[in-house]
Specification:
alpha/beta, 3-stranded parallel β-sheet, 45% helix, elongated
């Protein structure tokens, strides 16, 4: 390949890794049009299609898959050569778009970002906190480079890696008749008004999976209200509207302060 095609290989490698021309452009500080032009130029040079475009997503062709390791090696060697010649390690400068559902976004991500910022000070991180379904959509469509969520999907375009553990617990006030108990049965829970997260949240999905394993559904519960906010759910429990099922991460402060009591179902 011609030496002038190095920028094209960089654009190709970024698009291959992120699965989107838009995401590749964002990470490189370019316009989407510039990335598309570079990849088209590379395809003309090798005389073969490297991507198949569908619904805003870029899928590698067989030829594209074969080119990926060579492109990454060339880009890495170029970077190493610059550092060897100049004696300076080039700072990694880019923009990282992260989508997170409420629990990891509010309770896990801040500490992770503090460590990440120390290691990569030149990378600008842009975080959006939403529900799990929206996180999965944003990553699949290239609007986010990666997502943190408590829910998986069967999409063939996404890969999942565990990074933390969580537990779904039942919460009551210290004055509740269950406050001295460590656990209750599902039959007992079905008789109490329950406050739940909305459909689409990771907490709701985990609850549905747990109920399914014992032959139950959400409709078997006495659902008093569905709320799209962990803070609003905790406040509803404190106001006596019912018991609630939430992530253990979401209630750590209230549990330590004695405002809420947790049980297992």
């Amino acid at each position: 390949m011609k030496p002038k095609l190095l920028p094209h290989l960089e654009a190709f490698a970024a698009a291959a890794e992120l699965g989107s021309f838009t995401a590749a452009a964002r990470s490189m500080g370019l316009t989407q049009a510039a990335v598309s032009q570079r990849i088209h130029a590379l395809e003309r040079e090798v005389d073969v299609s490297l991507f198949r475009r569908e619904g805003g997503h870029a899928y590698l062709t067989e030829a594209g898959h074969r080119l990926v390791p060579f492109a990454q090696k060339i880009v890495d060697l170029h970077q190493q050569a610059r550092e060897e010649v100049t004696g300076k390690q080039s700072p990694i400068a880019a923009e990282l778009a992260v989508a997170a559902s409420s629990i990891p976004g509010e309770h896990l991500l801040p500490a992770l970002l503090a460590v990440f910022r120390q290691k990569y000070p030149h990378i600008q991180v842009r975080v959006s906190v939403t529900d799990s379904q929206a996180v999965l959509r944003d990553v699949e469509r290239g609007k986010a480079n990666l997502g943190l969520t408590g829910q998986e999907s069967e999409s063939k375009h996404l890969q999942f890696r565990p990074f933390a553990r969580d537990e779904i617990v039942l919460i009551v006030t210290p004055e509740d008749r269950w406050a001295r108990r460590k656990n209750v049965s599902i039959e007992q829970l079905c008789k109490r008004p329950v406050i739940l997260r909305e459909t689409g949240s990771g907490s709701r999905w985990c609850l549905e999976q747990g109920l399914h394993r014992i032959g139950k559904r959400v409709s078997d519960l006495n659902v008093a209200v569905e709320v799209g906010s962990n803070e609003a759910i905790k406040e509803a429990v404190l106001q006596g509207m019912g018991v609630a099922i939430l992530s253990s991460h979401a209630i750590q402060k209230e549990q330590l302060g004695g405002q809420l009591h947790t049980l297992r179902v």
